[in-house]
Design goal:
binds flavin-adenine dinucleotide, two-stranded antiparallel ribbon, single chain
Length: 488
């Protein structure tokens, strides 16, 4: 038998990029830094920079990968058969969520409501989403629950201090349970019933087909009363709240999304009886903003990896980043990402502006929630391809970005529903909303971005660009665009 000489070397590892780590996710992203200044949140820069530094560490990346690898497990019963409804989560999930909560990503504008607070929070959300999208679901729901809870001062008085606390262990998290088996968009068709049992209390019986993060302490839900669909709040410690199973999902695999049943859950009304939809919409408007931010963050995360790889990998004797066909792809991905970041931060400012921007806030959130979320999966696929086969391999982080990327478009108003919120008539809704989305992005870039970025965006998206990414027309100055895309 031949003996293998293990000291004999087969090859040297060359032409593989170093891991991208130790960079600050704010300082390497000029478009975000400029947006913070422009949208009244200059005071928040140090706070975002601190989060950006942690987000760029190997520690953060490893927690993110581990949390994704070790998916949550439902323990519905204990060994004796008693219901316990516990979800086992990896310690890395808690690390990621704890950092988000301690940084106030779920609460900043409610605890420190100064101009620019929603923008600062949006930037924190955008930066930490690049580490892991899953934990941002309870973070977003907790942030978004506050405007709905504030329709009842007693309930808000009881829950707001806990929900806005930055103490991960002593504070509380809020979730939302609206979607039922027969329909999520058409929530007026909910079948879950609430019966009055006196003293302002109701008992809810029914089910919800999606309920992300059943570990939340308190939930907003919808149920029918004699007056129609009504918004309720209940505590998850109620013994009538039962988790049936966890979904096996395409993406956000570390986030437990469950199916739940309500067996006489005790709940209180939030807002007016029979006016549950307008009450919960106060929450949904904020989660929609976070869908937009999440998709902008996903594009940014993919772009950064693509540019980094191309700067270090050679093919045919030249760095990929120096080859015109790759420059076209990278510049195209970069302008799409910058447009998404710029518009998301501008819309976040509308949440700081109160009544003065109410119409813009409502309309632009729906339009850009539709458009930016729609672009994310295509962007993720192209960014992944820039890494070649490495991009298809789990440890590059790209498959996770790709798997997660369709979610924001489904959540909180799936594509058509978001488009219909932005425009009628229905047949043309997507086309019109798409045009509106691109027009708003272009106008912001023309006013605020370097001319190379704005000119390329207008030339490609309003003019003669192709259909796939990497089809920017002649005359685009790719080099400054790609340099700006990753300032490290
Ligand atoms: C990972 C994950 C986590 C989730 N977590 C939660 C949660 O925590 N809480 C919660 O309440 N929900 C949650 N959801 C549910 C989500 O909000 C719904 O899936 C979503 O609202 C769509 O509802 P649906 O699945 O019933 O689809 P449907 O409402 O049946 O829609 C199906 C399709 O029809 C389209 N459509 C609907 N109405 C129209 C119309 N009038 N005209 C044209 N097209 C239309 C939609 O755009 C969609 O493409 C989660 C979903 C996912 C995937």
């Amino acid at each position: 038998m031949a003996v293998i000489d293990s000291t004999r070397s087969t090859h040297e590892v060359i032409n593989q990029p170093p891991p991208l780590e130790g960079h600050n996710l704010l300082d390497s992203d000029p478009s975000l830094l400029e947006a913070l200044e422009r949208e009244n949140a200059g005071w928040g820069i140090d706070r975002v920079r601190d989060t950006g530094a942690l987000a760029g560490t190997r520690e953060a990346r490893e927690h993110s990968q581990r949390s994704e690898r070790n998916e949550p497990v439902l323990r519905a019963h204990d060994r004796y058969g008693n219901r316990i409804d516990e979800v086992e989560l990896d310690p890395s999930w808690h690390w990621l969520l704890r950092e988000a909560i301690e940084r106030g990503i779920h609460s900043l504008p409610w605890t420190d409501p100064q101009p620019g607070a929603h923008v600062t929070r949006a930037a924190l959300m955008y930066v930490w989403s690049q580490v892991g999208a899953g934990v941002m679901c309870p973070v977003s729901m907790t942030y978004s629950a506050i405007p709905a809870l504030r329709t009842d001062s007693a309930i808000a008085g009881e829950w707001e201090p806990k929900l806005t606390s930055t103490d991960y262990d002593a504070g509380a998290l809020a979730g939302m349970a609206m979607t039922e088996k027969q329909g999520g968009s058409d929530i007026r068709a909910n079948t879950t019933r609430a019966e009055r049992v006196g003293d302002g209390l109701y008992e809810i019986t029914g089910h919800k087909w999606f309920c992300s993060y059943p570990d939340c302490d308190v939930f907003l839900t919808l149920a029918q009363t004699d007056a129609g669909v009504t918004c309720f709040v209940f505590e998850s410690s109620d013994p009538g709240f039962q988790v049936q199973r966890l979904k096996e999902k395409l993406g956000t695999r570390d986030l437990p999304s469950s199916e739940v049943e309500f067996r006489g859950v005790q709940a209180r009304i939030v807002g007016e009886e029979g006016r549950g939809v307008p009450t919960i919409i106060r929450m949904v408007n904020h989660t929609r903003l976070d869908c937009l931010l999440g998709s902008a963050a996903s594009m940014r995360a993919g772009l950064v990896q693509a540019v980094h790889h191309a700067r270090h990998r050679s093919a045919f004797g030249k760095l990929l980043a120096e080859q015109p066909a790759m420059q076209n792809v990278l510049a195209d991905l970069a302008i799409e990402s910058e447009a998404a970041t710029t518009v998301a931060m501008r819309i976040a400012r509308a949440y700081d502006e109160g009544d003065a921007e109410a119409s813009f806030r409502r309309f632009a959130t729906a339009v850009e929630k539709y458009w930016v979320c729609k672009r994310a999966p295509m962007h993720a696929a192209e960014a992944l391809e820039c890494l070649g086969g490495n991009g298809f391999v789990e440890e590059s982080g790209m498959p996770r970005i790709y798997r997660d990327s369709p979610l924001n478009s489904i959540w909180e108003g799936s594509g058509n529903v978001a488009a219909l919120a932005g425009e009628d008539p229905q047949w043309h809704a997507r086309r019109v909303v798409e045009d509106l989305g691109v027009a708003l992005q272009a106008s912001l870039l023309v006013r605020n971005a370097p001319s190379a970025v704005a000119d390329a965006f207008c030339a490609a998206r309003l003019g003669a660009g192709g259909r796939a990414f990497g089809t920017l027309p002649a005359g685009v100055d790719a080099e400054p665009i790609v340099d700006r895309a990753l300032a490290v």
